[in-house]
Specification:
Aminopeptidase, 5-stranded mixed sheet
Length: 148
């Protein structure tokens, strides 16, 4: 069955025409707090280095890289419709993003994900796990008690 679905799925570089469909695809992931909210303008910007998976004319997957500099880019907005998960769609989208980073001479591509094993299976790993870790804060959530 997996091969049948894979043969029906096509991949292409994202375009602005895909933006409404990508927004619709990622909406449930945003609601479940699995992806960050991105405005239509942000999704439009991501199409420059983004990729779409389609099946029967419907967008079933999306991912992009956000290039910060030649040193660093981030794999962002990886989403695959539930009906197509586990069928290689996410892996193919990640491969396309890695290729895009390579073509743009990006030194390091990072991904922030809760899917550790999936990302490792795609070749990602923790950078300097014994020495450095990424820390995050949500400035809008800082209260006076936090600053004490």
């Amino acid at each position: 069955m997996k091969e049948d679905v894979e043969n029906e799925i096509t991949y292409h570089t994202a375009s602005v025409d895909d933006v409404p469909h990508v927004c619709q695809l990622i909406e449930p992931f945003v609601k479940r707090k699995q992806l960050l909210y991105r405005s239509t303008e942000e999704i439009s910007d991501l199409t420059k280095n983004g990729f779409v998976a389609e099946m029967s004319g419907e967008v079933v997957g999306f991912s992009a890289i956000d290039i910060y500099s030649r040193k660093m880019a981030e794999l962002v907005c990886l989403a695959v419709a539930e009906s197509c998960q586990g069928k290689g769609v996410g892996r193919k989208l990640v491969e396309l993003c890695i290729r895009c980073a390579k073509e743009n001479n990006v030194h390091e591509l990072m991904a922030i994900s809760a899917a550790d094993e999936f990302m490792k299976s795609c070749g990602f790993d923790f950078t300097l796990p014994e020495q450095k870790k990424a820390f995050f804060i949500h400035p809008g959530e800082i209260t006076d008690a936090t600053s004490e």
